[in-house]
Amino acid sequence: MGVIVKKEVRGCMLGIWEIKEDFDSLFSRLKLDADELETLGSFKNESRKIEWLSVRVLINEMTGKDSRIIYNQYRKPFLKENSFQISISHSKDLTSILMSKSKKVGIDLEYMSHKISNVSSKFINNLELITTNPDLLRYHLYIHWCAKEAMYKICDKQDINFKENLSILPFDPKHDGWLKGRVLNIHGVEDFNIRYENMDGYAIAYTCK
Predict the structure, then answer these.
(1) In 43-133, alpha helices (H)
(2) Structurally, how many domains does the chain consist of?
């Protein structure tokens, strides 16, 4: 299928790829170096290999050239030579990347297939308000989870507990919109404006700063 979203959002580039290709089709679109081939070969699961390949194909589509993704000691991804900061997420048939030359970025998407209310106590704190509308409950919880994942990634995944250090300020869930998130940890307090969307059964949230 390929790219279904490619747009600029507040100085960042968002790309979303719908994975319809098999391993050979994705592999044929890439020129992997020895390290990348070794990484690809280390995955035992075929679906994990396809996810990994789809990320590389999407980043090449977004940059318009053959690009290399590297990771720092905290497993935070960058493009080689630090030309872009990037954030990556994939779930079921979608792969997403948010990238920027000048801003920190964070993105998460989740296919809304699970009873997330069963585990909500692990990431929702007493300061957060969740809808009482049963038709919106699952979506609202998924937005909270995705928004917290996005903040977790933009803060380099350090010194953060999802329930204790991340909060989503009250909002009424819509099909798409903006919400405010807050990080409170040993480094201080920081607020983020976070975009969220319902994309055909997927919840997606992303932020840049």
Answers:
(1) 46-63
(2) 2
